[in-house]
Specification:
The complex is a heterodimer of chains A (about 525) and B (about 240). Chain A is of the alpha+beta class and about 525 residues long. Chain A is about 35% helix and about 20% strand. In chain A, the strands form 5 sheets. Chain A has a 7-stranded mixed sheet. In chain A, strands 7-2-1-11-20-19 form a 6-stranded mixed sheet. A 3-stranded antiparallel sheet of chain A has the order 8-9-10, with no helix packed on it. In chain A, a hairpin with an 8-residue loop joins strand 4 and strand 5. Chain B is α+β, with helices and mostly antiparallel strands and about 240 residues long. In chain B, the strands form 4 sheets. Chain B has a 5-stranded antiparallel sheet with strand order 3-5-4-13-12. In chain B, a hairpin with a 2-residue loop joins strand 6 and strand 7. Classes of the chains: A alpha+beta (about 525), B alpha+beta (about 240). Chains A and B meet through helix 15 of A and strand 12 of B.
Amino acid sequence: MRKNIRKIVVVGGGTAGWLTAGLLASRFDRSEQEVSVTLVESPDVPIIGVGEGTWPSMRTTLQTIGVSESDFFNQCDASFKQGSKFVGWESGGDDYYYHPFSLPEGYSEVNLADHWQIHKDKVSFANAVGVQSLMCERGLAPKQITTPEYAFNLNYGYHLDAGKFASFLSAHCIDKLGVEHVLANVGKVSNDEDGYITQLDCDTGEVIIGDFFIDCTGFHAKLIEGHFGIEKIQLSDVLFNDSALAVQVPHPEESSAIESCTLGTAQSSGWIWDIALPTRRGVGYVHSSDFISEDAASEELYQYLVKSGCAVQRHEFSPRKISFSPNKRKTFWVNNCVAIGLSAGFVEPLEASALVMVETAAKFVREHLPSNKGALSPIARRYNAMMNRHWREIVDFLKLHYVLTKRTEEYWQAHLQPSGIPDSLRENLELWKIATPWLLDTPHIDALFPAASYQYVLYGMHHDTRLEPEWLVPEQKKQADILFQQNIEKARGLSTALPTNRDLLKKVRQYGFQSI
Amino acid sequence: MSNFQLLNPEEHKNLRVIVEHGADLGDAVRVVQTFPFEFRSVQGHFPIFLQKTPDTGEFQCVALLGFEEGENLFLNEQGWASSYIPLMIQRQPFLIGFQANPESDEKKPVVTIDMDNPKVSSDQGERLFLEHGGQSEYLKAAIARLEYIHQGHLHGTEFAKHIVDLGLVEAFTLDVTLENGSANQLLGFYTINEDALKQLTGDQFAALNEKGYLQPLFMILASHSCIGDLARLKGEKLSKQS
């Protein structure tokens, strides 16, 4: 058997496939032509295309593969995303809180969550520890037109049109990074005596020989399940949303503000995402079919749209239905094959964890793929351990959003069932009754969600931490007071310096950002 | 605030423009836009940098006249203290405006005047229009200057874009310590990265030369010797105040 890894084959051409192909192809020196990346894509399978929110990590990813941010904005109908705003999760009324992308001020030195407790009746946690939530509330962008591309005043990711994003990445990968593109349906998958995949036979008669294979075939899981038979682990006892109804609607008016947070509004049996792009909104109701019928869910979605100013007619309202079962693979990397994207698992769109998992996975492969197949098994073991940990983090953190509710509907009460709360989360919740989340609660350096994220959700939902004032370090209290004061001044300065999100997007279209 | 009106011989028949310079005449500015066309004249007097236009983020070339907001060290009791005055100062109180043409997408350049500019007067300075109609020599020269500026702006924007794309431009912070020990820091300015310039290939140099960008590029570098002059003027101003 050929031992060297020289030909990498990505199967599947959705966002996951092209992001992975791009991250890998940009790692190798093109002039050497030693290592090649091929992406084979079915001409018949449409992409799922509802992953329209990213984390700030996407800025680094795009920069790494050599994309101009201005081109990306204009060709993917992209907007700025500064975090999430959760509405109605606590009581079902007008209650809301922000989970912004910026860490609390002074995060590397002092835990502001401790020192905010005595001010909690006067100011929300997010507004006290940073300025981003306030800027979002005022409809302001995270930077100015004079800020260089990928740089920021306030940390940001993107909202984007998933279909356009896949095409944009595909053009970039083919034209700029030399990814070989094959349009064909993969049929027979062959392996050698050690169980390593050697070739794919396509319906076009083409045979694709490769050394390393990446399964980005979405829910089809063509290689990881179809060939290797790796089973799924159900996660529906913890996170039981299994359906979504999605629509695209125009903005109420041409001058309507473009929200730079993903809005997540709690409903009777799930929540509605609302993602604003420059030209339209993408809105969808994620729910559990055990608790609500499709018709009733559709009606709730319709009512939401009407309330948000959208001129949609009831009789022509037909949202697209997407079904899923919350699960992850038991193993993600087998021999010379790794599953990335929906083929690896999916729970639900809350906190937009899907794309960041693709980035994390592809980045790992980019950095650790050995040049020789002989070294694959220890790398696979590390990868599987890391991914299993990330899935636990996702499940815990997503569940946290639900378990602090005071809503009384059956669906929300079901989230409070002890049997559906992972032990790790239960233990942390006990701890957080007397201590605020802090660095050791998320001890891994590459943790997906920092302790700050837990703080934003816990205190956004008015979780009560009985911190004893005597327990605070006096010097840190002084430092915290200075930081709180600085935030007030910073908010004042940025309020006048930052343009509205809509105005900045218009300028990006017209002038673009400078590279420096 | 400004109040721009389309210049017309009826309405502005008796208008005059003061041609002297002074802080009270609106010339107290720290930076002024400049164009590669005039670098030859500018570079002997003022340091030239690049700066981003706040409204668009696009780069433009500027001449530095002072260190603090609203400080123009070239103004004194006698007026302007250097033999060359940048075009964008000379143009006051006129500006090119653009009028939409209903028949095509193109916008037509027109002459406008800022009626709130302190240089606009009814009894002092140069007349704009002759008694029996027609433009005065002063106005003809002012309009020619505006056309020159209009071309200079387009050329300057292209010039800046070209050298930014070549990776020749870098941000820098100017720290100036004066003789009295006071430190002045200037942010938001960009200049030519000389190391990057040395790395250019022969073809890239030839392309720069063909577009007429090579000379202005080196004039920017040459102009930096004026930073010392500017610091000296500032020192003199401070010692007069104390």
